[in-house]
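Attaching the record inline, Q. Sequence:
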Amino acid sequence: MATRSPLQSTLCPFFRMQQDAFLALLAQDGFAQTVVVERESNGTLDWHAHPFEAKALVLEGALTIETDSDSRTYAVGDIFHLAKDVRHREWFSAAGVRYLVGRKP
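Structure, as predicted:
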């Protein structure tokens, strides 16, 4: 059985999710809490974990997320999915980043 990375990208290269469709997807998947997160230009967050599962749509800028087993960069239109309690760190682009994120316990 294949092991899934704790950091899942659901991006199709020819498809950019619109915000309304993403909100509908979050509701369908049980992500009741949604917030918009903004991070500063060239900023970083050191190793940490969240007590919730997160699925996010990048609205502006870009970020790189590294887990113990993976590192991926996400730009406008990309979706990332991070499992609950997964240790990770983040880097933000020169433009910073702004993303819409759904959270669930």
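The radius of gyration is 13 Å. The beta strands are 7-9, 33-39, 44-48, 53-67, 71-75, 79-82, 88-104.

More tomorrow.
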